[in-house]
Amino acid sequence: MLENDIFECLTTVLDTHNARYRVMEHSTGGRSEEIAKIRGTHLGQGAKALVCHVKGDGYRQYVLAVLPADQQADLATLAMQMGGKRASLASPKEVSELTRCVFGAIPPFSFHPDLKLVAEPLLFERYDELAFNAGSLERSIILNTEDYRRIAAPELVAFRKTDD
């Protein structure tokens, strides 16, 4: 099954790089708030991964944009920061092809050469651990934040909505 494939990829990468993490099996949660309660974590510890399509001025790139679950993405800012004109969320078919996961189960790691990994800097500023669905809606990984940054090596891009 596809989701087990992603889980195996994740745990292999984490084990190979001596990451500090734990796996949690749980019931399927709906929204980020619900899953944080189930995990016993703060909402902001959730690493929300959005598959986006950035394009414009000859630029075309799929991006896995990761931000804290208590924040909202500003897709216009993401597009501008990436060198494009506009950004949109990818279709369910594109998400499945690029991540081998369903919406809501996408971990903050890219295993596809056409999917560029970027992270909102705030992800690394507030919590010692990040939590995310590990290729399944019923399985999470809680990972040391610095280990995530070291292993995934995302490009840092500020793209969360602010009140400015």
Automatic annotation (TrEMBL):
Occurrences of domain YbaK/aminoacyl-tRNA synthetase-associated (ranges): 31-151
Source domain of life: Bacteria
Annotated coiled-coil segments of the chain: none
Annotated Gene3D superfamilies: YbaK/aminoacyl-tRNA synthetase-associated domain
One annotated GO molecular function: aminoacyl-tRNA deacylase activity
One family name in Pfam for this protein: tRNA_edit
PANTHER family: CYTOPLASMIC PROTEIN, MULTIFUNCTIONAL SER_THR-TRNA DEACYLASE PROXP-Y
Protein's recorded name: Ala-tRNA(Pro) deacylase
